C-alpha cells in the first residue's frame, strides 16, 4: 500500500481520544459481517490487523491504523446489529456524527456493500449522514466471488440507482473479493491517490 509499516494505533471511544489530525485519513463503514475486516486485511496484507478490531469490546470503537505515517485508515464499527442495546447504539451514533462532521482530515469514506444483498436501509442512513457531513463516499462491493454475473449486474444496478439520491456519493463503484483478490489493487490505488491529492 505504502512503503513502510502498517500498524494498529488505537481504538477510540470519544472525540477527545482521536489521534492528532496530522495526516489524511479514509474511513471504512459497513454493516456487521459485510466483510470489512477481511477487506482491511487484504488491503494491508496484514492478516491479524483488523481482527483486533473485531474482538468483543473493540467493536464499538473507531479503530485507527497508521499507513507508513502517510495516512490513517479508520475502521468504523459495523452497524445494523439489532442485538446491541439502544443506549449503546445511540452513543455510537452520536460519536459517528461528531466524527464525520468534525474530522477535518477525513478525505473519503468507503461504504461497504455486500454483493449479494445490495443497499439496505441502514446503509442509506449512513449515506445520509455522509451527505450531511459533506464527506465524499465511495461504495465498495464486497464478496464479489459469491455472486454470479447476472445477480451481480442486478445488485450493481440497484446500487447505482440508490447512489443517485446522494450528493456526496462518488459515482465509481469498486467490486472486490478479499477471498480472490479482485479489486484490491484498484482500491489500494484509490487510497494512495486520495492520500496524495
Ligand atoms: P466484518 O464483520 O464486516 O468485519 O466481516 P468479516 O471480514 O469478518 O467477514 C464476514 C464473513 O464473510 C467471514 O466469514 C468471511 O470469511 C466472509 N468473507 C469476507 N470477505 C469475503 C470474500 O471476499 N469472499 C467470500 N467468499 N467470503 C468473504
From TrEMBL:
Under the heading Gene3D superfamilies, the entry gives: P-loop containing nucleotide triphosphate hydrolases (3.40.50.300)
Keywords of this protein's UniProt record, alphabetized? Cell cycle, Cell division, GTP-binding, Magnesium, Metal-binding, Nucleotide-binding, Septation
| Stretch forming the signal peptide | none
Q: Which domain of life does this protein belong to? A: Bacteria
Q: What does this protein do?
A: Necessary for normal cell division and for the maintenance of normal septation.
Which cofactors is this protein said to need? Mg(2+)
The record places domain EngB-type G at: 22-197
An example of a GO molecular function for this protein is: metal ion binding
Q: This chain belongs to which protein, by name?
A: Probable GTP-binding protein EngB
One Gene Ontology biological process: division septum assembly
* SUPFAM superfamilies recorded: P-loop containing nucleoside triphosphate hydrolases (SSF52540)
To which protein family does this belong? Belongs to the TRAFAC class TrmE-Era-EngA-EngB-Septin-like GTPase superfamily. EngB GTPase family.
Fetch the PANTHER family from UniProt: ENGB-TYPE G DOMAIN-CONTAINING PROTEIN, MSS1/TRME-RELATED GTP-BINDING PROTEIN
A GO cellular component term found in this entry reads: cytosol
Q: Which Pfam families does the UniProt record give?
A: MMR_HSR1 (PF01926)
Keyword Membrane found? no
**Keyword set includes Cell division:** yes
Q: Which organism is it from?
A: Vannielia litorea
Amino acid at each position: 500500500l505504502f512503503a513502510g509499516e502498517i500498524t494498529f494505533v488505537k481504538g477510540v471511544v470519544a472525540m477527545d481520544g482521536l489521534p492528532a489530525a496530522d495526516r489524511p485519513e479514509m474511513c471504512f463503514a459497513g454493516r456487521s459481517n459485510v466483510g470489512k475486516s477481511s477487506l482491511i486485511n487484504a488491503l494491508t496484507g496484514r492478516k491479524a490487523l483488523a481482527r483486533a478490531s473485531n474482538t468483543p469490546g473493540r467493536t464499538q470503537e473507531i479503530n485507527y491504523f497508521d499507513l507508513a505515517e502517510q495516512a490513517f485508515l479508520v475502521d468504523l464499527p459495523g452497524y445494523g446489529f439489532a442485538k446491541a442495546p439502544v443506549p449503546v447504539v445511540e452513543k455510537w451514533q452520536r460519536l459517528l456524527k461528531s466524527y464525520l462532521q468534525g474530522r477535518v482530515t477525513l478525505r473519503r469514506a468507503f461504504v461497504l456493500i455486500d454483493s449479494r444483498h445490495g443497499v439496505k436501509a441502514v446503509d442509506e442512513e449512513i449515506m445520509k449522514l455522509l451527505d450531511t457531513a459533506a464527506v465524499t463516499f465511495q461504495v465498495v462491493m464486497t464478496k464479489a466471488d459469491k455472486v454470479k454475473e447476472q445477480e451481480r449486474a442486478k445488485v450493481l444496478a440497484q446500487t447505482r440507482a440508490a447512489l443517485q439520491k446522494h450528493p456526496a456519493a462518488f459515482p465509481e463503484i469498486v467490486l472486490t473479493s478479499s477471498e480472490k483478490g479482485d479489486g484490491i489493487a484498484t482500491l489500494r490505488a484509490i487510497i494512495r491517490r486520495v492520500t496524495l491529492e
